[in-house]
Write a structure and sequence with these properties.
Distance between the termini: 52 Å
Helix content: 25-40%
């Protein structure tokens, strides 16, 4: 049977021999007090004429979820490839579990990578896929059934174990994809855009599964373009821009450092504005969004925000809705890129 694409990125040839995870006392500690399991120091990566990473420092601790954010092509996937040993740095140091994953097999056996594409056989059931993957990962035959049951339970797909992958929803396919990566009981799970293309319910189920893994002591590194997802999931985030780690820390700390108490004001109009209304909105400090009925501004404090609806209506503007919104990824990236320009 032909192996699906990316399968070599999910598993390593030898058995990891990692003991079953336990609830560890370090899980609820701040990140800086947890055990350091992986780091990059002064890493540069040159691919042809392009310098993808430029002096990146990065650390990952036991039992935390770290989310990498940034525009496409900024180096998020490159950083993951360094940790999994698929790529070696042009200069700088990469360490994981006390070794160099680009030179040593032992660190690689302690991690699993879940690609964005579904790396499963579509015409086989969930269980059949996991049993085949367990064999490919080198697990002893006597342990395969136990590991499959364990992996399915962790992401709660046991109820669909006899369904063909082709018949699953996008969310269940992603859960099965993650289950395959958990067969070797990795201490580090790397996920590339784990919730892209799935509905809200599936996203929430995946979030719960990842948080259970984190609480059980697994370290998780994921990439995402969704700041709200990072806000819900991640203990820390890293913003990569122009090949550098521009910001790193808890989401709340980064947003407060960048924006303080400022929040975006979103105004939705009852009808599309004519030139005179547009002029008034601009004088009030609003700018148009991509939606013709939506205009945005910034506000500090609830007092100024509370006075806005009356001020808008006084000018004869048909106001449908006004709300406050937390800064999004585009705001964060614009702030970072502006600071570096």
């Amino acid at each position: 049977m032909r192996q699906p694409a990316y399968i070599h990125r999910l598993y390593y040839a030898m058995e990891a021999n990692i003991p079953a995870r336990q609830n560890l006392s370090t899980i609820q500690m701040p990140a800086h007090q947890r055990t350091l399991i992986a780091f990059l120091t002064g890493v540069h990566v040159q691919l042809g004429a392009r310098e993808v990473l430029r002096g990146v420092d990065f650390s990952l601790h036991q039992g935390e979820i770290f989310a990498l954010l940034g525009r496409n092509g900024t180096g998020k996937t490159t950083l993951m490839r360094l940790l999994t040993g698929q790529l070696r740095p042009t200069s700088g140091a990469v360490q994981a579990f006390g070794g160099d994953p680009g030179r040593e097999a032992a660190p690689r056996r302690m991690m699993s990578l879940v690609p964005q594409d579904i790396a499963l056989y579509p015409r086989l059931t969930v269980r059949e896929n996991l049993e085949i993957m367990a064999g490919m990962a080198g697990l002893p035959k006597r342990e395969i059934s136990l590991r499959v049951e364990e992996a399915m339970a962790l992401v709660q797909v046991e109820g669909r174990q006899r369904d063909l992958i082709d018949h699953l929803s996008g969310g269940y396919k992603r859960r099965a994809n993650i289950a395959a990566a958990l067969l070797t009981r990795p201490r580090l799970l790397l996920l590339d855009e784990p919730t892209v293309g799935v509905d809200v319910e599936a996203r929430l189920s995946l979030h719960r599964a990842l948080m259970r893994l984190r609480d059980d002591g697994t370290s998780i590194l994921l990439t995402t373009h969704d700041l709200d997802e990072a806000r819900v999931l991640a203990d820390r985030i890293g913003i990569i821009a122009s090949g550098r780690m521009a910001e790193e820390g808890p989401v709340h700390d980064i947003l407060h450092r960048m924006f303080g108490d400022r929040r975006e004001v979103v105004v939705t109009l009852g009808r599309e504005p004519d030139d005179s209304i547009r002029s008034i909105l601009e004088r009030l400090g609003f700018t148009p969004s991509t939606h013709p009925l939506e205009w945005t501004s910034w506000s500090t404090g609830m007092e100024g925000f509370a006075a806005l609806p009356a001020a808008i209506r006084r000018h004869g503007i048909d106001l449908h809705e006004i709300r406050l919104r937390e800064p999004g990824l585009e705001h964060v990236l614009a702030h970072v890129e502006g600071a570096r320009s």
